[in-house]
Amino acid sequence: MKIIHAKDYTDMSRKAANIISAQIIMKPDCVLGLATGSTPIGTYNQLVEWYNKGDLDFSQVTTVNLDEYRGIDRENPQSYYYFMRDKLFSRVNIDTNRTFIPDGMDEDSERACRAYDEIIKRCGGIDLQLLGLGHNGHIGFNEPGTAFEAQTHLVNLTETTIKANQRFFKDDENVPKQAYTIGIKSIMQARKILVVVSGEDKAEALRAAVCGPITPNVQASVLQLHNDITIVADEAALSRI
Ligand code: GLP
Questions:
Q1: In a 3-state reduction of DSSP, which class is residue 190?
Q2: Catalytic residue among 138, 142, 153, 234
Q3: Distance from the CA of 197 to the center of ligand 1, in angstroms?
């Protein structure tokens, strides 16, 4: 496990974007596993900046996102589909036919999950998986207690996660209680993993993930078993390590 110390959020974003850029340059038709949440926004902004300068070409890149809320349609600004289009896809020359996000509107959750596993398989697996970290140590929407063997599945979000997500919704009642997420198994099968962590409120989750026992109670702790993982974290997030 490699831990890269960043000064602050901006520095973290630039360093993470550097790693993603290197992946795209080395393998222009790579498969990127992408994440939502506030942490990767700076990373996406930096990638867009380098794209605008002519340093990056997304035309052959495929992306597979980690998760999506259930019951929120793609045009809803709170959907992860909307987020990805807004923060990255509409700002670079990516072929949107090669961008994948779980279908939150599929009534048949089992079908939605198997279809998404099939997409990941058809892409040939993920070359570089970008991850944020939840306050309770979740990655994607894999909440504490989930079996590490899980593939794409429907999740009942925990109270802490629902609370953390409230800041994005005007009305508390509209915060989704369920989401689709790719499982730990698919994340661990990625060839490289890049985790971005910022802020003191994530320090305890990061400490538990990196220094604590490997346990489903802290989903991110499984990352200790991956053989090519880089964590880029700022000083505040690293304050307990
Ligand atoms: C959500 C997302 C995760 C993300 C986490 C942390 O739960 N499903 O993928 O890592 O939030 O978000 P933030 O970066 O906003 O703290």
A1: coil
A2: 138
A3: 10
Per-residue pLDDT tens digits for 100-138: 999 999 999 999 999 999 999 999 999 999 999 999 999
143 is a catalytic site residue:
yes
Residues 6+ apart with CB under 8 A from 25: 56
Alpha helices by DSSP H, listed for the chain, are: 9-26, 41-52, 80-87, 109-122, 159-165, 184-188, 203-211
CATH, residue 90: 3.40.50.1360
- Does residue 241 lie within any of the structural domains? no
Residue 167 DSSP one-character state: G
Q: What is the pTM of this model?
A: 0.97
- Residues flanking ligand 1, CB < 6 Å: 35-39, 66-67, 132-134, 140-141, 161
- Domain with 18, as residue range(s), is 2-234
Is residue 19 domain-resident? yes
